[in-house]
Amino acid sequence: MIELRFTAQKSNGQLINGTVSEPTFREGKKKIQNLTEKNQLKILKIEKKSAYLYKIRKGREKPIRGEQRAYSKAEVENALRKLGYEVLSVNKVLLELNFKPPQQEVVSFVKISAELLEQKLPYSEVLTLLINDINNKTLKETLRQINNELKKGADSETTFLRYQTVFGKFTAYMLGLASKSGNMAEIYRATAKFLERQQEFKKNLRSALITPLVTLFVLFLAVLFYVGYIFPETAKLFVKFDIPLPPMTAATLKLSDFLLNNALLVALATVGPPIVLWRFSKTKKGKLFFDRYMMKLPIMGSLIHKTNIEVFCRVFYTLYSGSAESIEPIRIAAEATGNSYFEQQIKNVAIPLMIKKGVGITESFEASGIFTETALSRFHSGEETGTIKNTAYQLANYYESETVFRLKNIIELIQVGIAMVIMVVMIGLTLVSAETATISPKAPTMK
Known about the structure:
69% of the residues lie in helices and 10% in strands. It is built from 18 helices and 6 strands.
């Protein structure tokens, strides 16, 4: 998060200071401009909080080096002098590279926090311990800032949500909510379980879909290179000496000529569609389209769909406290799935039915069209018996077991299929090469 401090002036000359936090400098500046326009203020100065490297010394002791974030160099110098240090140098870090921490680092932080909280350690001590042990610079600095703000009495939910670019929206919301609840350890443990499950599913999905697609794409490029460049260099020698070519060799040479004569068109057809689809998937409309039809894919679609329901049920179970306060848990659970279509159907169909028409949870979920018959049946049973919270937990565990087992089988089948495709391609190339090797020039005739 980028922290900005602004100084503005009222029409009567009074000065006003304020701070904002946004993911980018541009968004922060825009927010400040909107605030000042709304309140008819004149902006005098906007300062960005940056990192400063300092070198200090106390008396004749060995100089100490460190890093501090502040809005100006003077702030750092004044703060260090107040602590009784002699300031030797303070320099602004010219290039701050604060990459988002790896997901595994965030999972580890949440999981260890849950274990320490279960041992009844105060949350401030938990943060202090982890700040000292975490190696990732971005996560360490984020936790240090959160700890300082919480010690000053800041609202935990607001504080964590400011750093959702580091933790992720759902994780930031859950951690902020945990600090205000009476069951911090349970919410941290549930969040860790969710993050681990999400990470495992992405890893398996990558193995099942992305890795095979990349393998096939690279194989396709290798075949293009062989057919378009290596093969014709040999085959055209026979054409030059008017030697008849066998069928496969002749067909491959025609394909090679086509590829060479239409190189630009082939390149566009090969690289263009993936780039266009990738760019389209980054748009709001594109993400909605892909998220919707990903759940309808043959074989994998059912697993993706059930995994979304599993995530929804697990988060809903963690947050649900009673039918009187079910809207917020449902909304957050829908966002946690990471599927924009699933989220849209819950927010635009299910929740409005519950709020405006007083429709029950089961009927609302059925109207959204994103839950399986099994899930709807279990929710209906849970709603009638007043055990909908436990029903959500049972559904989450059921779908987790089913998807983990089926995904492993699918990954194995896909790997076998990829191996078969590679084998067929290699056999084809071998046959063409072998056929070419059998070509022999005509014996010279004596005149």
